[in-house]
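2024-03-11 09:14:02 DEBUG pipeline.ingest accepted 1 chain
2024-03-11 09:14:02 DEBUG pipeline.ingest length=173
2024-03-11 09:14:03 DEBUG pipeline.predict start
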Amino acid sequence: MDLHTTARRRLRAFALILCPIAAACAPNVEWASTPELRSQRWQQQEPAAPALSAPRAGLSESLGSPELSALIARALAANADIAIAAARIERARAELGIAKSDMLPVVTASAGLSGTRTDDKAASTFSFSEGFTGVDVSYDLDLFGSARAGKRAARERLRASVYDRNAASSIRR
């Protein structure tokens, strides 16, 4: 046996002896059990909170200030955030239209006419002519629901855009 193999064996023996000794030195920890639930209120439904009613009149009407009403109207008209939100609504509507059109059948029609002219005086003006028409109809069955999911996602994006616009213009007149 060489020196390297002897050193490995001693290291293994040392590790085998040291592990149980180290484990014996570990403190004995007693884990507390989970406490009993004394209250069962968390299982009961809470009564519905009364709905808060929004004030019927806006800030300018409640203060009776026509100047404030005019300033609020000008601020809403010049608000870039509201204009951006309105543009996002239009984009979301267009995306919803595209998603809806993915569920419709596709109809394609084509027609054409071709001819070859020759310089031969004895032959007719056209020695070869051809005409064709075609109609293709295709429909995606949407077996796995990707078109329906795309339509649903587009509808939710439109609802989120409307919500964002309403949040941007949350000043009550």
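2024-03-11 09:14:41 DEBUG pipeline.report The two ends are 96 Å apart (CA to CA).
2024-03-11 09:14:41 DEBUG pipeline.predict end
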